[in-house]
Amino acid sequence: MVKAWIVTGALALCCMAAPIVKAQQKAVDAEGHQWWQHAVFYEIYPRSFADSNNDGVGDLNGIASKLDYLKDLGVDAIWITPCFPSPQVDFGYDVSDYEAIDPMYGTMKDFDHLVSEAKKRNIRVILDFVVNHTSDKHKWFEDSKSSKTAEHRDWYIWRDGKGPGQPPNNWLSTFGLSAWKLDPKTNLYYYHYFYPEQPDLNWRNPAVEKAMLDVTRFWYKRGVAGFRLDAVDTLFEDTKLTDNPVLPGTDKFGRPNMDERYNKKLPEVHDVMRKLRGAAEEYGSVLIGETWTSNVSELKDYYGAKNDELQLPMDLMMTEFKGLSADRYRKHIGAVDAAGAWPTYVITNHDIVRSYTRYADGAHNDDIAKMMAALYLTLRGTAVMYYGEEIGMENNDPKNKDEVQDPIGKLGWPLEKGRDGERTPMQWNDGANAGFSKTKPWLPVPASAKTHNVASEQKDNNSVLSFYRQLLALRHKEPAHRDEAILVVLNMSATEQKVQLDLSPLSFSSPKLSVLLTDFHKPLAGLTDALPMEPYSVFIAKIAK
Ligand code: GLC
After folding, report:
1. How far apart are CA 510 and CA 513, in angstroms?
2. 125-149 tens-digit pLDDT
3. Selection from 208, 175, 206, 202 nearest residue 190 by Cα
4. pTM as predicted
5. Which of 79, 194, 288, 353 to mutate to test the pocket of ligand 1 (most atoms within 8 A of CB)?
6. Average model confidence (pLDDT) for the chain?
7. I need a labelling partner for 376 at 20 to 30 A (CA). Which of 141, 149, 273, 386 fits?
8. Among the options 29, 99, 243, 282, which is catalytic?
């Protein structure tokens, strides 16, 4: 397979590496790819997608009612962020029972219904597995804190303080304050990398490992096609509790910056990834990782030395690029391709400012959204979208502290506003509450819902939504097999660029081009001269020898 890529005029060639095919997983094409390699995953934040019982919070039946929309959009799998029983301190990422559905979202019957309805449409369901911690209301933790000799005592990380009022070491919670909380019952501290209501599990305890692997099997048996693994970096801590080195400067909470070398990314993480993969292989399932890495080589480690860890560790690096620089993207994509593993691209999710808002320049916002879609949805690799991205949803940050729901926003205001802004209700139409619910939703809908919503955009051929649908249709229709290439030209700048299509380096010396998709505002006169790329535009064509 050859896929040609041009970003503002300079060529970058992508070649396909043969993936490892496990016995249990059937190839879906002649090149040995599996379903998840061609798939587009779509992340759903269940609180905010569709509210079927009009209580202001989304639910599973709401999701089921939108499956036709997702099918029509071109989605192959949905990843639902945690929908398990939870006190909702971290909106579901504090799980109090891994093998049930929170009544707020529905019942197990609703879940089974969702899976079977999705299956009819050839859409797989992926769940979110919170591996690092449970809720403090989980029965394991309730027992663990009850006494020093409790059955589950060693399922969490309990340590003596350094002295009166002093935690065991200087580790900090990523959500503010210390990572240790003193529990008066036994007068020992427990460790929590996230909120105090999210105590870290002790993955060095084989009983924890067994219980957690069994959770995955419970869901695989119910028809779940895989998991997105939450916060894998933080599974292990140095057993000697060595203090982290303090760095210059302060963070958003005003605390000293730290080099978290003793409580993050410990090598033992990979043993757990291998074991989770082992369980996934029993059911032919796929594992997606929340893998925050600073470079491609670190990301590569998550596939496993023998391709025996995660099939799809997310490349989250592009979400941290500031501004639009063709050169920066070109280099990154080149490095990912050179690494030879199967990439998983993401530009936004429920923890970061929406891509539409991050890239907007005020003058070409929709064009930029389309251009970024064309960037990551045409690359060789798997793509993970975030709900609302396809209609150009923007962040709707709280305007003052009283409105904030996400606890980190309350603690860190105003430097840290929390993550409410990127989690607002899906915009289905231009009516009340954007058609999400008949009741006031748990988070407010922005004014832009009047223009950026599914119903309006479905009627407009030039909308962001229409562009996404065409792009995803193309992605499914045009595999770019041997002796074919798909040319993707993107203008990442605010000025028109003339692009000379010299494809000789790709051994296409007299190429026949047929245009597949553009978002030009002016009609394209012809392809004989240099290609006039409008600001932030997209040109996709098929090349035949
Ligand atoms: C992950 C989730 C985030 C959550 C955290 C703790 O980073 O994406 O939303 O708050 O883990 O579970």
Report:
1. 9
2. 999 999 999 999 999 999 999 999 9
3. 202
4. 0.95
5. 194
6. 93
7. 273
8. 282
